[in-house]
Specification:
This protein is an alpha/beta fold. It has eight helices and five strands. Strands 3-2-1-4-5 form a five-stranded parallel β-sheet, sandwiched between helices.
């Protein structure tokens, strides 16, 4: 299939394990991908640097980084001076809505991706949400993805004119972390350049103790694979 004949898609690329896997899935499925990364006032720039590296490595023709500072609102350990939870067990991670939830983040991200897609005449948007490992996040549920897809086709010129029927793809929605990793490895994803940690060290290593690190480490162990990123010495 030639470059000009491939359907276009927008992939939300955070620089983490899940979004990188989703990018590989979109490319596998034959889409001409444009990646969108949001600088939203998160605690560190490591994931932004990772997103740029990944986009280059995976030969994404267009990668946009949008700045939207959600620190003005706060309300999350990722956008305010609130400690990131550490060393929580699996039961605690899976119960309730954690303080690392950023209010309306996925709604905002998908709205930006929708605007980007409409300018590209792209009908497909990919997002790396997961309803198993992050069951406490309300904007990672299947009902939210379905509702946003309906909104996308009601709130856009392309949807109203019938020029496009927008589709929101969440291919990792019902996969365990180990299954996501196995899928990515089968597609040739190099996870060495990804960043999942909520609170990395100033020297660049992942903390190994936040929810994101713990889920990632357990996922690699369950997949029978070695996590190639560097962790703080306490986790080794």
């Amino acid at each position: 299939m030639s470059e000009t004949s491939r359907p276009r898609a927008v992939v939300l690329l955070s620089g983490g394990l899940d979004s990188t896997t989703v990018l590989a899935v979109a490319q596998r499925d034959g889409f001409d991908v444009a990646a969108l990364t949001v600088r939203y006032g998160q605690r560190h720039a490591a994931e932004l640097d990772a997103a740029s590296r990944i986009a280059q490595r995976m030969r994404v023709a267009r990668h946009e980084i949008i700045s939207l500072d959600l620190r003005a609102f706060g309300g999350s350990a990722l956008t305010a001076d609130i400690p990131v939870p550490k060393d929580r067990d699996e039961q605690k991670i899976g119960s309730g809505i954690p303080i690392t939830y950023v209010p309306a983040r996925n709604t905002i991200f998908l709205a930006l991706a929708l605007a980007f897609a409409e300018t590209l005449d792209a009908a497909d948007i990919f997002i790396g949400v997961n309803a198993l490992d992050y069951s406490g996040y309300p904007d990672c549920r299947p009902a939210f993805i379905e509702a946003f897809e309906r909104l996308a086709n009601l709130a856009t010129k392309a949807g109203v004119d019938g020029a496009s029927r927008f589709r929101i793809h969440a291919p990792l929605l019902h996969l365990a972390k180990s299954e996501i990793i196995a899928l990515g490895l089968s597609l040739g994803v190099d996870y060495a350049g990804t960043c999942s940690c909520y609170d990395p060290l100033p020297t660049g290593e992942a903390c190994g103790r936040c929810d994101a690190c713990l889920l990632r480490l357990r996922g690699f162990a369950a997949a029978g694979a070695r996590d190639p990123i560097a962790y703080a010495a306490a986790r080794r």
